[in-house]
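Quick one, C-alpha cells below:
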C-alpha cells in the first residue's frame, strides 16, 4: 500500500479552490489511514512550539494531518517552527501549508518545494473567462453537459461570488435532467438574471430604450462587468441574424441546422420582428465597436471613455437601429 503524501503546499488566493485542495489531501491520506486525525493551525493565533507538539509521535500511533493556514501572515515563531520541522519531518505526519500570496514565509515555501512537496494551485478566478472555465469544469467534474449560453447566463446571474457560483452549479447538476440550458438557469435564478445582460439585450432588441438603459444602469451599479453584457448583446444579435436568414422551416429543423435549441429559434424569431438587414447590420457594428472599447481598445480619441460609457452607447444604438432612428 502506498504511504500518504507527507508534504503539501496549497498556493493561491482563491478560498474555495484552496479548501477543496486541502480536502483532497486529507481524503487521499484517509484512503490509506482511515482514522487519520486532522489538526488545523492558524497563523493569527499560533503559539510557539504548537506545530512541533502536534507533530510528536503519539502513544497510540496513527497518522496526523497538520494543516497550517495563512502562512502568508505567519510570524517569526511559526516560520522557525516550520523550518525546524522540515529539517527533520516526522513519520506518520502529513504537513499541509496554505499560502495565499506574497513573499512572507518564502524560505518555508522554497524548502517545501525543494523537499518535493505536492504543490496545488488555487489561482484567483477574476475574469469572466475564468468564471466560464470554472463553471465548465464544475459540470465536467459532475459528468453533466451545459450549453455555452447557459454557462454565460449562470455567470451573469451569480456574479462575483465563486462559492455561490459553485453552489449553483451543484444545484443545477443535481436537479436538472439532461443538458442544462438557459431556460434552466432562468427557472432557478430568474430573480438574479432579470437585471443582467439577457434582460438588457431583450429590451434593446425590442427598441425599448427606457427599459434597456434602466436595466443596464441597475446591473452596473450592482457590480456587473460590462464585458459579458456586450457578449450577450452580440450573441442575441447573431442569433437573430442567423434565424432570420434560415427561412421559414420548423423551429426544430432550423434549430438542428443552426446548432441551437428550438426555444432559442422561437425567441430569435420574436426578436427579429421589426428588424431588417440594414438596421441589424448597424446594430451589430455598434456592438462590435463596444466589444473593442470595453476590452480597452478605445484609446485614440481625445477623451478615454469608460467601459460603462461604451456599453451604454451600444445599447442606445441598438435601440435606435431597431426603431429606425439615425
Amino acid at each position: 500500500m502506498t504511504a500518504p503524501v507527507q508534504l503539501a503546499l496549497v498556493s493561491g488566493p482563491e478560498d474555495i479552490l484552496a479548501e477543496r485542495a486541502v480536502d483532497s489531501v486529507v481524503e487521499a491520506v484517509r484512503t490509506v489511514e482511515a482514522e487519520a486525525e486532522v489538526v488545523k493551525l492558524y497563523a493569527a493565533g499560533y503559539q510557539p512550539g504548537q506545530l512541533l507538539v502536534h507533530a510528536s509521535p503519539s502513544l497510540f500511533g496513527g497518522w496526523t494531518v497538520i494543516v497550517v493556514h495563512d502562512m502568508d501572515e505567519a510570524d517569526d515563531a511559526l516560520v522557525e517552527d516550520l523550518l525546524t520541522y522540515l529539517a527533520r519531518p516526522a513519520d506518520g505526519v502529513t504537513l499541509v501549508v496554505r499560502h495565499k500570496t506574497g513573499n512572507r514565509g518564502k524560505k518555508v515555501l522554497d524548502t517545501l518545494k525543494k523537499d518535493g512537496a505536492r504543490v496545488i494551485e488555487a489561482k484567483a478566478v477574476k475574469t469572466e473567462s475564468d468564471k466560464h472555465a470554472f463553471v465548465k469544469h464544475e459540470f465536467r467534474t459532475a459528468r453533466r453537459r451545459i450549453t455555452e449560453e447557459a454557462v454565460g447566463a449562470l455567470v451573469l446571474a451569480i456574479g462575483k461570488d465563486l462559492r455561490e457560483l459553485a453552489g449553483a452549479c451543484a444545484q443545477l447538476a443535481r436537479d436538472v435532467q439532461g443538458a442544462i440550458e438557459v431556460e434552466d438557469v432562468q427557472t432557478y435564478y430568474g430573480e438574479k438574471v432579470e437585471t443582467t445582460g439577457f434582460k438588457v439585450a431583450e429590451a434593446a432588441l425590442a427598441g425599448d430604450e427606457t427599459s434597456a438603459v434602466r436595466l443596464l444602469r441597475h446591473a452596473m451599479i450592482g457590480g456587473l462587468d460590462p464585458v459579458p453584457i456586450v457578449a450577450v448583446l452580440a450573441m442575441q444579435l447573431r442569433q437573430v441574424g442567423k434565424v432570420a436568414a434560415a427561412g421559414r422551416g420548423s423551429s426544430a429543423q432550423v434549430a438542428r441546422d443552426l446548432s441551437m435549441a428550438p426555444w432559442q429559434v422561437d425567441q430569435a424569431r420574436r426578436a427579429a420582428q421589426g428588424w431588417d438587414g440594414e438596421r441589424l447590420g448597424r446594430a451589430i457594428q455598434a456592438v462590435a465597436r463596444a466589444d473593442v472599447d470595453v476590452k480597452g481598445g478605445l484609446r485614440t480619441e481625445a477623451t478615454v471613455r469608460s467601459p460603462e460609457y461604451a456599453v451604454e452607447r451600444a445599447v442606445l444604438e441598438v435601440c435606435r437601429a431597431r426603431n429606425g432612428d439615425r
